[in-house]
Amino acid sequence: MPHDFMPGLAGVPAAKSAVSDVDGERGVLVYRGIRVEELCASSSYLETAYLLLFGQLPNRDTFTRWQQDIMHHRRVKYSIVDLMKCLPEQGHPMDALQAAVAALGMFYPGRNVKDVENNYWSAVRLVAKLPTIVATWARLRHGNDAIPPRDDLGFSENFFYMLTETPPHPSWGEIFDDCLILHAEHTMNASTFTGLVTASTLADPYTVVASAIGALKGPLHGGANEEVVLMLKEIGTPERVPGYIDEHLKNKKKLMGFGHRVYKVKDPRAIILQRLCERLFHECGTSPLYDIAVKVEQAAEELLKGKGIYPNVDFYSGVIYDKMAIETDLFTPLFAMARVSGWLAHWLEQLRENKLFRPDQIYAGDHNRPYVPLDQRA
Ligand code: CMC
To answer: Is the distance from the beta carbon of residue 220 to the nearest atom of ligand 1 less than 6 Å?
Structure first.
């Protein structure tokens, strides 16, 4: 049956899903029917992760058990730490994360993805261990020892503790938790689709997540948050913004952190992240990068008027992380440690009615071409 070819599968449904939904015209994002604004105001990352994975907000008992299960699985085995010690310290943290997650699967070999109980524990391990892996790598590459998690700290506070050996400024845990909520899920994006393709082969969840991490790394997807801050630092001062943006767009270069396949208005996550920036700077002093970012948004609005290109989730998140003194190349790993709950929610959904992904192609090559022996080729 012939079909129209849609480059990038734009507008082609790849799955039926009840995990999240985007209204790109109105700028609305819901997880399991609940708006992200409401989740940021009232929920936590761990509760939101549970909602995404299992479809319901947990009751008190279930939530207590979920928190405890996560807490008990935050540590990573010495062998994983040793493996990371063997990686080149100048390597990108996304590569270290992908290698460590793939290796995790070798330590937890439950390959039968039809085993519901085993799948629960795989999800717990992955949600719990990704922050530990990110923080461990961030320390090892500078010659510092890994810091084990602290059981008296919440999910986000503990991440900062494992990174710096000090619990964060009181409001940072809350702001960072909201950032994780906003990055936890976003319908059929490139990394989720990658994870689903891997899942459809009935590969184990560690392989599913490792493949999704690979797709997230690219600058057109999660890698954009790192590029944004590098661009803001390159611009240097708010006064240099108009000239820089003008030149950039004249040279047909894309502005990182702008544009989206689905949103035709400002990404609702960018709106919340901008508010979080303002809260952070009100409490902890401003950041020069924020003034530049606001100017970039204004200049881009002027120059890209009518094209439906506005800041996306990657535009303001890096400004927050930079103020929290997190190294720029860790921004995409932070995205991954939040998005793992979305990837796994889609993985569980895929397993319920699995069909191997095996799309078609439109062949554009030759037929009946003769084989020319080596000594007769030009
Ligand atoms: N800056 C300037 N022009 C842009 C941008 C941008 N960021 N994004 C799209 N355009 C223009 C593009 O040049 C093209 O113009 P024309 O029709 O004149 O040739 C038109 O808009 C359509 O662009 P496209 O790349 O075909 O559209 P798409 O739906 O494939 O783009 C996108 C989606 C996210 C890949 C793109 O907007 C982009 O490359 N943005 C920059 C990278 C980025 O911020 N990525 C993060 C995406 S959101 C979070 C995430 O997934 O991690």
So the answer is: yes
